């Protein structure tokens, strides 16, 4: 008879009870663990940024900013619209930061329509401080075309601002204050970048000219001037000299080919009937101190004094003969490869220019220009 308090299938005394297997529960536990990890990741990487955007501070730059940005406030423009435009211009990191900063400044409701000078990557509150001050409204804009000489730039600035020619000339003489590169050797020619500039009531002749040099530095940096010049085997100053010649002589796609003609003549004197002299008319005009002309006489070419006359002096002139823009600088840095040693603009109206590898070919194109001048143009 069995003991009523002992189960029939109980293990014998003195033996171990076999552990139960939980094979049916383990997959469920793994599933739960993975699900917890996925939910945690979702909270961190999906919901987290959303919650942060909802309750955190909007993106904002630390300032003070860099470069120059012209910003126009339209009549009746809302703060939020300004913010959106400022964000597109990369003046502020986010429109929300600008709107918040404007909300914290009671004067923001009185922002006046007009043109303001700002910087890229400014702190939003600093932008608001600029916009609420009517004294920061730009009063004038001055456009400096490509190729103008320093003397012509001074005349243009004096004509379009409240400052005199003498004031600008005095400012030009202070190379250190302008921030010219060392290789300019104190001469601003070639380093006053052609562009449209906003002149504010706070500007001075020194600040206007310094801004032009700063704009040149920006262009030089963007184009990699110093590294590209070194790769070509020239100094940055020599490249700016070539760029000024290209600016005076060509336009559009021809610029890079003209640059190659200049390098070919400098590097290979005696080839294709030329003697290593550039023989560029624009340098004679510069030597004579007069505007570019078409009707140079042979006597002027042969007798104009000074080192800038490339009909008399071999190689490059000692410096730029004007202030080139981006296109001309880029052409000087990246010339179109070719064996040309001559070029002739055969149509002064369209600017059509033909390039020659030999002197005989050049003579042919020159006769074409003479025919054009005799029958189709009075500009020659």
UniProtKB/TrEMBL annotation:
Its main location: membrane. One of its GO terms (biological process) is peptidoglycan biosynthetic process. Its EC number is 4.2.2.29. The chain crosses the membrane at residues 26-47. It is a single-pass membrane protein. The keyword RNA-binding does not apply. The record marks 249 as: Important for catalytic activity. Keywords: Cell membrane, Cell wall biogenesis/degradation, Lyase, Membrane, Transmembrane, Transmembrane helix. InterPro entries: MLTG-like. It holds the Pfam family YceG. It is found in: Cell membrane. It is an enzyme of class 4 (lyase). One of its GO terms (molecular function) is lytic endotransglycosylase activity. It catalyses: a peptidoglycan chain = a peptidoglycan chain with N-acetyl-1,6-anhydromuramyl-[peptide] at the reducing end + a peptidoglycan chain with N-acetylglucosamine at the non-reducing end. GO terms for cellular component: plasma membrane. It comes from the Bacteria. Belongs to the transglycosylase MltG family. Functions as a peptidoglycan terminase that cleaves nascent peptidoglycan strands endolytically to terminate their elongation. This is Endolytic murein transglycosylase. It comes from Nocardioides humilatus. The gene is mltG.
